[in-house]
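quick q for whoever's on today - can somebody do inverse folding on this one?? i tried earlier but teh output was garbage lol. tokens:
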């Protein structure tokens, strides 16, 4: 009887009838739901992370600007859930990181709500990511309260996120950050990394370059990012390359963070555009030579497994390559004994003492028959070769 009176007193105190959850006015309407037979005295102490959605929403949402007209709530939610998983940004367990999306179609922005404060902070690292062919801005919303958010969870992205998995580069690694970062879209999928670099380097050496590839297949996704060593050529390269036809595609080349700098005067741009078009046409007819020539369609992985056969092939390449100039080195990557993929297998690299020898070798060996196959000879970036990167 005493227990019944206590229960009735508790119910009366909160103005509830039996079998319903208590209605608490204010910001926390769902903070204390009661299960069947549960007493108020048994309620656990709620941790900060378990506060209601309303209380933490300002810290769990991110602003996404610059959306293309085709974007909708579902496509935005799916995209950001996928890229969060790809970079290792999910910290609230299995499932999608995105719980809600609101889009303003007229102004082309969205508010993307994450499951947790930490996941929202990780999403801030996605600024500049390409969504449906366009780079988007990822920012904190206007109602974000930094001091309050700091009590709820991390306010900065985890430094160990795998941003390279989605074509982004953290910090200054690779030189691919800042207002002079260039987005290069509309690339034919069959263009190799070496061919794209040749195209871009007609305007000067690159400080950083990243061709975005599919994580599972390793194939190009048709867009890349770069930064020039000489930042003054950024607008020149964009003006000259943007709109150029490449096969059945048209290049889109612009600053990844457009609007940071004002365009140059129209007359100067027209002049620079004309000058660089001439350089580009010359590039298309005659690739920029280097001291390294890469041969493909020459050897197979099986031929390279046997030590004696490998040495014979190496000697043949030294003899043939030496006919065109002084060879500094010959590199023929071999398959690994454990069967793991080995970059560059099937290629032969001829490193000459000078560009003249390499130029003669490329002209003399391209199209020749070797073992019944027609050899393809191209110039290879010296920086990649000397760093032991043979997968270009």
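ok took a stab at it. sequence:
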């Amino acid at each position: 009887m005493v227990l019944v009176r206590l229960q009735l007193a508790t119910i009366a105190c909160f103005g509830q009838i039996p079998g319903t959850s208590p209605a608490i006015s204010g910001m926390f309407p769902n903070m204390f739901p009661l299960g069947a037979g549960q007493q108020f005295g048994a309620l656990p102490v709620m941790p900060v992370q378990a506060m209601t959605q309303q209380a933490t929403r300002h810290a769990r949402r991110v602003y996404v600007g610059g959306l293309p007209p085709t974007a909708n709530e579902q496509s935005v939610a799916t995209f950001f859930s996928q890229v969060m998983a790809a970079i290792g940004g999910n910290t609230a367990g299995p499932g999608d990181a995105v719980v809600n999306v609101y889009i303003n179609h007229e102004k082309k922005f969205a508010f993307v709500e994450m499951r947790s404060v930490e996941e929202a902070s990780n999403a801030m690292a996605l600024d500049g990511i390409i969504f449906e062919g366009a780079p988007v801005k990822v920012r904190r919303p206007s109602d974000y309260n930094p001091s309050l958010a700091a009590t709820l969870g991390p306010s900065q992205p985890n430094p160990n996120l795998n941003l390279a998995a989605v074509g982004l580069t953290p910090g200054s690694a690779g030189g691919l950050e800042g207002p002079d970062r260039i987005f290069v879209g509309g690339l034919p999928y069959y263009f190799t990394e070496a061919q794209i670099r040749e195209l871009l380097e007609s305007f000067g050496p690159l400080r950083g370059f990243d061709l975005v590839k599919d994580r599972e297949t390793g194939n190009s996704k048709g867009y890349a990012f770069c930064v020039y060593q000489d930042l003054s050529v950024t607008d020149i390269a964009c003006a000259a390359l943007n709109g150029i036809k490449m096969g059945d595609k048209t290049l889109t080349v612009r600053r990844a963070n457009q609007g940071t700098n004002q365009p140059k005067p129209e007359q100067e741009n027209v002049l620079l555009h004309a000058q660089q078009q001439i350089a580009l046409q010359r590039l298309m007819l005659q690739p920029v030579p280097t001291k390294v020539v890469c041969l493909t369609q020459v050897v197979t992985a099986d031929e390279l497994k046997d030590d004696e056969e490998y040495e014979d092939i190496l000697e043949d390449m030294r003899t043939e390559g030496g006919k065109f100039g002084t060879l500094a080195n010959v590199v023929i990557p071999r398959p690994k004994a454990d069967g793991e993929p080995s970059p560059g297998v099937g290629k032969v690299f001829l490193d000459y003492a000078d560009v003249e020898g390499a130029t003669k070798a490329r002209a003399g060996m391209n199209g020749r028959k070797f073992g019944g196959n027609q050899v393809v000879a191209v110039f290879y970036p010296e920086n990649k070769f000397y760093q032991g990167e043979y997968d270009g």
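fwiw The first strand starts at residue 61 and ends at 65. also The first helix runs from residue 2 to 14. so keep that in mind when u check it
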